[in-house]
Fold MFS transporter, sugar porter (SP) family.
Amino acid sequence: MRSSNDPAARRSVGTVAAVAAIGGLLFGYDTGVISGGLLFIRTEFGLSALMEGVVVSSLLVGATIGALVSGRLADRFGRRTVLLVTAGIFAVGALIAGLAPDATVLVLGRFVLGLAIGPASAVVPLYIAEMVPADRRGALVNSNQLMITIGIVVSYAVGFLFAPIEGWRWMLGLAIVPAVLLAAGMAVLPETPRNLVSRGFPARAEDVLRSIHGKADVAAELAEIAAADERDRQNRSARGVLRDPALRPMLVVGIGLAVFSQIAGVNTIIYFAPSVLETSGFGTSGSILAQVGVGLINVLMTVVAMLLIDRLGRRPMVIAAFAGMGVSMAALGLVYLMPSQSGLVGWFALVCMAAYIGCFAFGVGAILWVLIAEIYPLKVRGAAVGMATMAHWLANFVVALTFPLLIEGAGATATFWIFAVVCAAATVFCVRLVPETKGRSLEEISEAREEAAR
């Protein structure tokens, strides 16, 4: 069904997306805040290169586990319930990390935060995708990505403000504020109509559809959801997803895109940019401030993507993004072949990082969470999205843990050129396998997938 012209219904849809996307804000803040804090944590706790990787990647271990279990929990208990619990875990993790007396407790706090980030990254886009009309789905699901980028920029700004007092504990602990906002917002939002139908509550699903579509007749959409639910019952379990030949190509697309989005190197910029910029001639505060600029480009290009995603489509945007990211990474590798690592060379490194992040935000960041929330059938959507999200965080973990060691062992040029080659491979993957889904209902996408497999 297309968007209602009822102003109240349009406001309701916008409110749903805005509140749920606070989970994206937390995702972005807790992902990005370590980049500024690490400059001071490294000194206070005397971290080795390996231990730096552990501090950063402990969050990603938790996120991998959280993503793995969140999909099935969201299918069984509802998307809303999982997000309410997630908000509480965010708050606990922020307190542990902010009060950590040593590196071990800090790793524990980051792990707990990961247990929240995993479900947030999987379930927030899923919740929004199931709550909004097809013709606004790309932009509204991408509001989650916008909030992720805003969360990252806020974390950079907070890092800059607390840098003069080396206040990394404040940087980490302030994440409790959006956690409370998420809990308060989700407490008053409804469950998604598709999940309600799946769990046997069609009357409640109809009420939610009316709140989304206003005075429009929702009987046809409710019947379409019920029919899709009946078709998908045989694939209810995650094991069913793996056994169904019609679903395997989409699993490859979802998991492949999730993995490529990480091993292309984006989080070497998100997590380690201040450290990289320090070696390129920026001071400590200067490198954090420069990263704020990179973060603002991330936000700006995400807004551009939101405006274009339902016009240009998912496929051309993600292909162009990976190609641009590869060129940017190749250029960044050249920086470390130059004789001087200061002055104009440092600015060139910053431009390369900004170009890379701009391309990522325009395509990969914008498309990933939209696409994996669209391509799977209702009965296993949570489980399948959880699989793709788990793969995302597992790949993120590997990159975060190995990046400091790669820089130390192979050198910066070789490391960034490896990422450039990965971007080239990702471009080919998208050209060959990624489908177009713009403008179609979730049920239409599911039906088209089944027909293609016959």
Q: What stands out?
A: The two ends are 26 Å apart (CA to CA). Residues 7-453 form a domain with the Growth Hormone; Chain: A; fold (CATH 1.20.1250.20). The chain has one domain: 7-453.
